[in-house]
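Sequence of Membrane dipeptidase (Thermococcus paralvinellae).
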Amino acid sequence: MIFDAHSDLPTYVYDMRKEGRSKVLDNEFKKFFGDHIKARVMAVWTRPDKRTQALRYGLEVINQLYRDVLESERFAIVTTVNGMREAIKNDRVALWIGLEGGEPIEDSLDLLEIFYRLGLRVLTLTWSLRNTIGDGVFERTNGGLTNFGVEVLGKAEELGIVVDLSHINEKGFWDALETTTFPVIASHSNARALCDNRRNLTDEQIKAIAEGGGVIGAVAIPGFVDKEKPTLDKYVEHIIYMVDLAGYQHVGLGFDFVYYLKGWKGEVIEGFENEGKIPALLKKLNERFSKREVEAIAFKNFERVFERVVG
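Predicted 3D structure, token representation.
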């Protein structure tokens, strides 16, 4: 049973439904979910060409996701951990709504609360660029959290929204940890010590998330696994490295598969190209870790954080 902490499927659902398709997730259930993914964060990504209309786009994507879910009996959009457990008990995949980048909330805590009422439970503070909350990792400046960003963290704590530090730059990362008293996640990030990419985390960042009770989700993007030859074995090496560094209780899975998105260039991890290869991943994890540790990495660690923050 897997809790995937980051998926861009809402983008795909939106695009396909705009082309006239219905039951997008249902019709491709086996490909996207299979037998293993039982909970997933559905991240609404404000892609670069939509940044000037982020609020409208974010609302439309969430609306199309709700419509798609309503057309199927395989899914449930959940807002509590008990709701997630009930969905899984009833043989449905539990879908959490997230924002990948705070662009849709503009500079308004009211908008953040409105998104919360629409089901938002995970907020990735920035994508890779600057917004009203702070600077992303690819912004040329090194600004940390803005004053508004500090207010956003306070509101997230008040409402019960999980704060996600993937994509934020290092200064903003440390600002966030100094600002919040809640555990945070990095939903889709790997170890920079194994792959020197700005989107990956330093040892100090990994340990800091763990010390606060949070979780890092190992990401299956080739360029974050290995710059020369990304393979399943090297992906597993990131998981092992972070477990050795921070403890198995603080590592999870945040695949971020993007093979289905328009403009995808075809790069893949050899042996772990898509969700269909999850059995191969679980086999390798079971060879390296105990059953208890694999269950924690695959599902229970993120479940613990969500229960603490969201309830």
